[in-house]
Amino acid sequence: MAAPKTLIAGNWKMNGLRADGVTLAKTVAAGAPGVSAKADLLMCPPATLISLVANTLAEALRHGLVSIGGQDCHHEVSGAHTGDVAAPMLTDLGCGYVIVGHSERRTNHSEDDPMVWQKAVAAQLAGLIPIICVGETEEERDRGEALDVVRRQINGSLPDAAKAANVVIAYEPIWAIGTGRTPSLDDIAEVHDAMRALLTDRLNDGDGVRLLYGGSVKPGNAAEILALANVNGALVGGASLNAEDFLAIAAAA
Ligand code: 13P
User: Fold this and answer.
1) How much is the average pLDDT of 149-164?
2) Active site residue 172
3) What's the pTM value of the predicted model, to 2 decimals?
4) Confidence tier at 3 by pLDDT (50, 70, 90)
5) What is the pLDDT of residues 116-137, one digit of tens each?
6) For residue 77, how far is its CA from the centre of ligand 1 (angstroms)?
7) In the CATH scheme, what is the code of domain 6-251?
8) Does the active-site annotation cover 102?
9) 6 pairs with which residues across the strands?
């Protein structure tokens, strides 16, 4: 199977008021035709901005120039869960993806693998592609446990119905997020090769699952990271808040 098309996903995290969201989304969409041959673009705004961004980008969404995703979802479709957002609500707004199991959710909201699994299943049932995040702490890497952690997290959170078309995995070493530090290219390749081996073992079309790298991806390091054999895109935090940087990362694919 041919390598999956590169996906450059922007995780805006808890950033942006309405005016910022509109400006950022419009600028990214304006540049999207220039990079669309190289990469698919995905923006994951905070829940408060999804509707506005979707309306602003209606034309670009229709033409498949960009996609929109949520940053998290609840595993139930509705109910008494104050403050949470259900997966069908995201679909209803025009989302095609949702990030689940981000390390900031795992750490700040005590989410574990069974919970992330439930969310990923809920996302798929709602017609969304879950982007399942995995990655080790610095202590785990220092102890030589990075591969074990990543394998355990994937095994614990990958839905049974997973296939190349309905799941994305993002490797985000926790110590590289927002720090300006990244693993060596060899270390990224080692983890991504191990993830690929696990997925081809578990799924019929595991070689087609998009594997994203995340953690301090910038225009200056994107090309070498995206050139690695089993890296099929990036999950970008800070640099996704700047349209020029986000587009430059996509152009580096
Ligand atoms: P940074 O790109 O800011 O390191 O964030 C990565 C991330 O957490 C994306 O989900």
Assistant:
1) 98
2) yes
3) 0.98
4) confident
5) 999 999 999 999 999 999 999 9
6) 28
7) 3.20.20.70
8) yes
9) 39
Q: Rounded to whole angstroms, how far apart are CA atoms 108 and 24? A: 27
* Domain assignments of the chain as residue spans, ordered by start: 6-251
Q: Which two tokens stand for residue 97?
A: 């993806």
The finding on whether 6 has its CB within 6 A of some atom of ligand 1 is no
Average pLDDT estimate for 32-57: 97
**Where is 110: in which H helix or E strand?**
none
Q: Note the pLDDT tens digit of each residue in 82-118.
A: 999 999 999 999 999 999 999 999 999 999 999 999 9
| Residue 215 in contact with ligand 1 by CB distance below 6 A | yes
Closest CA to 84 of 134, 118, 43, 52: 118
Q: Which two tokens stand for residue 83?
A: 């403050």
Q: Which two tokens stand for residue 38?
A: 């190289």
Shortest CA distance to 192 belongs to which of 106, 163, 184?
184
By DSSP bridging, strand 210-214 and strand 67-70 are unpaired
Burial tier of 229 (Cβ tally within 10 Å: 0-12, 13-18, 19+): exposed
Q: Give the separation between CA 169 and CA 157, rounded to whole angstroms.
A: 10
Q: pLDDT band for position 2 (50/70/90)?
A: confident
